[in-house]
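User: Hi! I'm working on a homework problem where we have to compare a predicted structure to a textbook description. Could you give me the structure for the chain below?
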Amino acid sequence: MTHAPDQSTQYGFTPLAVTRIKGAQRANQIAVYLIYAAIFAFTVFGTIASIKMFHDNQLLYRLFFNLPYVLIALTIPITLYDAFIIYRYRLNQASMVIMTVGVSSIILVGGLLFADTAWLGLASWLGVAFLFKVSFKRFFDFLEVEEEPEIIEDSKVGNVIESDDSSL
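Assistant: Happy to help. Predicted structure tokens:
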């Protein structure tokens, strides 16, 4: 006797899809932490490198200049995976996902090829990670709100009525 897999859906999403989306949300959280680390490294090592005593220290200058770039560049593959998940499960408009990833990629590649700089392109990837963070939060907020029963207070008597009817 073969057992059919459990095909129960949660508002059109299978449990496997919800699990993948949660995994992408965790990956996006790692990307956000890397961005915070890049901002922290830029601030701390830039401040230390500006002190006259450390003005000629090449290690501090390299940490100030290159470490934030590396940390943000590490977020790009994670963000591309998140974009695929968001696009695949339609958590955001497809045109918005394509636009954010496309514009950020064009700015990064164009800056590297024609302007010999990466700061503007990498700065645009910062926004993509935070946009996806909001998309994941909205999706899971939607799932939580739809699971809770609706509580309606009868204003005439003061009674509380629990209702599972979403039409109320």
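For your comparison, note the following. Strands lie at 150-153, 160-163. The mean pLDDT is 86. Good luck with the assignment!
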